[in-house]
Design a protein that fits this description.
heterodimer, A: alpha/beta, OB fold (Dihydrolipoamide Acetyltransferase, E2P), Rossmann fold, 4 domains, five-stranded mixed barrel, 14 strands, 47% helix, B: alpha+beta, two-stranded antiparallel sheet
Chain lengths: 495, 79
């Protein structure tokens, strides 16, 4: 019974409260209880004991330095730091309140080895003791983290993590084995995603412990068992988030080697996204979370389902539009297909129209020809020789008249010029000249007419012909200067 | 093996869709192509849905043999 009282915690609390720990009303002093083995003994209340423990601890450890590795560090929005300090064999809770935490130059991390200064505090409501730290300083890398790095290097040098040795994910996995805790959050998340994605996948849960000393051995065994006894397409090794210690089973060399030995591809999904374990590195694929592992399995299938559905839809659409196009074409063609009777009527109309036009054309051709003939006739008539004859006749008449007239004119003009000539002739006749007193002198004996005085000489015989008769004369004297215009007296004078 | 067959069917389906979409097929060929395409869709969908949805858990029987029992999440412990 006492044991129970001291272990009051967690989910047992309600049950314990239900047990009467005090005597019913008026059953003696507070804290006094009937003990079946002894007489009267001091019975503490939880508070009393806690108070005493607190007095002892807080007095004893009011100021001290402690070294250890930080683990399970968290810093809620309050700004306080909560974590555990630990070494190989023990761990102690620690808190650093905001006012002190603020003074730190670095952010504590899991795995970090530190030296801290503070005091031990007891928190009665939870019956817990912890270090309340005032100061913290790092001491270099924590042992677990160091161990992790060392193992990682070793396995990497053995080629365990090489991409070349990793197996591809199977095409459309249908049967998968999940090595995990059957009661953990990981399997729940994993199955939830598969359910949500409607993945028809056979899932075999292989139950193992996922933390603690036994865990890695059980996981190695499970891997071997799945490989030998189950024919699955892929193995998923998973667990939910936790501290580095919680995940430590997945940082074991034996596990890494077992994963590498597996003939079935292994997807590792351990812890949260930021947690990378040796198992993650050794696995063929790493998924950041259990849900992500499930998604990896179904994504490809979903893509294929989508693709098939898309192709189906496109095909249906295309055929639908092809058919509707053809239907339209058909309707259009049908619209152009006429009733032959209508066509006959059309032909009749066309024939009538054409015949009308033929008749009209013929008629107008005839008329035209007639008109042309008429014109030809007229032209012919116009050029008729009869017409020509009459014109000729007319012209002849005109010509005759003109001829008569012209002849008249001609004759009269000739007559006139004849009389004029006659007159001129008469005037020119030497006889008429002579009659007017002029005379002609002819040289003798050659009978040449003398026109200049120089043509004769003194003593020459000349004949002077007068208007009536003539005379033979002898030249007495010649004078070239003598002129009709000179006075006769002068002439005489010269004599 | 399954992958190759499936991929081939899918490829063929793609080709049929492209041919249909090119609009160059005469009606009777288009109908034939469509019919074949639908068969391929059925095949591909069938392949994708082939696995049976089943969740089991391995248990070790007393004689050391391994057995499979239906797996159910125990909610109260899972949290």
């Amino acid at each position: 019974m006492f044991g129970f009282i001291l272990s009051v915690a967690g989910s047992w609390f309600d049950r314990v409260r239900a047990v009467p720990i005090r005597a019913p009303h008026g059953a003696g002093k507070r804290g006094v209880f009937l003990n079946p083995f002894q007489g009267n003994t001091r019975v503490y209340t939880v508070s009393e004991l806690t108070e005493e423990i607190r007095g002892l601890l807080e007095e004893q450890f009011a100021f001290l330095w402690i070294e250890g590795e930080i683990s399970n560090f968290r810093s809620p929005i309050s700004g306080h730091y909560y974590f555990a300090l630990k070494d190989e064999r023990a761990q102690i809770r620690a808190v650093m309140f905001r006012n002190k935490a603020r003074t730190l130059k670095f952010l504590p991390e899991d795995g970090m080895k530190v030296v801290a200064q503070g005091r031990v505090g007891v928190y009665p409501p939870r019956g817990e003791y912890q270090m309340i730290l005032d100061y913290l300083e790092p001491m270099g890398v924590g042992a677990l983290a160091l161990a992790f790095e060392q193992l990682k290097r070793k396995l990497a040098s053995q080629g365990i993590f090489d991409e070349a040795v990793k197996k591809p994910l199977p095409f459309l996995p249908r049967k998968v084995a999940v090595i995990t805790s059957p009661t953990g959050a990981a399997i729940r998340d994993f199955l939830k995603v598969l359910g949500r994605r409607f993945a028809n996948m056979e899932v075999i849960v292989v139950p193992v412990r996922v933390q603690g000393e036994e865990a890695s051995g059980e996981i190695v065994e499970a891997l071997e068992m799945v490989n030998t006894h189950l024919s699955v397409d892929v193995i998923i090794l998973t667990r939910g988030g936790g501290s580095v210690e919680d995940l430590w089973a997945f940082n074991q060399e034996v596990l890494a080697l077992a994963i590498r030995r597996s003939n079935v591809p292994v997807i590792s999904a351990v812890g949260h996204e930021i947690d990378v374990t040796i198992a993650d590195l050794a696995a063929d694929f790493r998924a950041p979370t259990p849900s992500a592992a499930a998604e990896m399995l179904v994504t490809e299938k979903e893509i294929l389902v989508t693709r098939v559905l898309d192709l189906k839809k496109r095909m249906e659409n295309r055929l639908e539009s092809l058919l509707s196009n053809l239907r339209e074409d058909l309707e259009r063609s049908a619209g152009r297909l006429h009733d032959p009777r209508k066509r006959l009527a059309d032909s009749w109309m066309r024939l009538d129209d054409l015949s009308g036009r033929v008749i009209h054309a013929g008629r107008s051709y005839l008329e035209n020809a007639k008109r042309m003939l008429e014109a030809e006739k007229r032209a012919l008539h116009y050029h008729s020789p009869l017409l020509f004859l009459s014109a000729m006749r007319q012209e002849k008449n005109f010509t005759a008249q003109a001829l008569v007239r012209a002849a008249g004119i001609y004759l009269s003009s000739r007559k006139m010029s004849l009389s004029m000539l006659e007159r001129q002739l008469q005037n020119l006749s030497p006889l008429s000249i002579l009659s007017r007193g002029y005379s002609i002198t002819v040289h003798f004996p050659e009978r040449s007419v003398v026109r200049k005085a120089s043509e004769v000489g003194k003593g020459d015989l000349v004949q002077v012909l007068l208007g009536e008769g003539g005379m033979n004369c002898r030249v007495e004297k010649t004078d070239n200067t003598m002129s009709v215009l000179s006075a006769p007296e002068e002439m005489m004078d010269r004599e | 093996m399954a992958e190759k067959k499936f991929e081939k069917a899918l490829e063929e389906l793609e080709e049929i869709v492209h041919a249909l979409e090119s609009g160059e097929l005469p009606l009777d060929e288009a109908l034939k192509a469509f019919e074949k395409g639908m068969k391929l869709v059925k095949y591909c969908s069938g392949k994708l849905e082939e696995a049976e949805k089943k969740v089991t858990m391995l248990v070790k029987a007393e004689n050391g043999k391994v057995d499979q029992v239906p797996f159910e999440i125990r909610e109260e412990e899972a949290s």
